[in-house]
Amino acid sequence: MYTIKITYDTGDSFNQYNGRTDTVGEWKTRELAVENANRLVEHYKLYERCSSNHWGDDCLTEKEVIDIIKTKEWCPIIDEKSHSKDYLMLHSITLKLENGTSMQYGTSTWCGYFERLVSVEVVCPDHNMIWER
């Protein structure tokens, strides 16, 4: 089985906690795990462009990023009436499951003012394999 290992940094105004990890999902095929890992990386790269910590010519507003997210296959399914719709669009993603369905996954542990995504790895402990992005 393949899982996705996410390493991120977090903190607050007074402390920083580096190298935190989350493990996401379980897939039978490497291809599906890699596809989901790529979704997570793509989501983070978009989120980063509207982050208050991002500077440069490629900066986007939150609305611009949300409009781009809406065009992606991994766009989260959010109730139109939700009072936190914009937040959820920026802090969640849809990952594919083996049976053809999908699951929503929250990304707020590495998408925030003090948070930063460090790495995304597809891990297969059975075969001692790692694919890093």
Compose a concise summary of this entry.
It is built from 3 helices and 6 strands. It is of the alpha+beta class and 133 residues long.
Please supply descriptive tags for the structure shown above:
133 residues, alpha+beta, four-stranded antiparallel beta sheet, two-stranded antiparallel sheet
Please characterize this protein's 3D structure.
It is a single chain. This protein has 133 residues and is α+β, with helices and mostly antiparallel strands. It has one domain (2-132). The protein has helices at residues 30-49, 62-69, 85-90; strands spanning 2-11, 16-27, 92-96, 102-106, 116-124, 129-132. Strands 2-1-5-6 form a 4-stranded antiparallel sheet, with helices on one face. Strand 5 and strand 6 form a beta hairpin. It is globular. The protein starts with a strand and ends with a strand.
Q: Structural class, judged by helices and strands? A: alpha+beta
**Roughly how much helix do the residues carry, as a percent range?**
25-40%
Q: How many independent structural domains?
A: 1
Biggest sheet overview: 4 strands, antiparallel
**Strand numbers in spatial order across the main sheet:** 2-1-5-6
Indicate the overall shape: globular
Query: How would you state the average pLDDT, rounded?
Result: 88
**What is the helix/strand order?**
EEHHHEEEE
Count of individual beta strands? 6
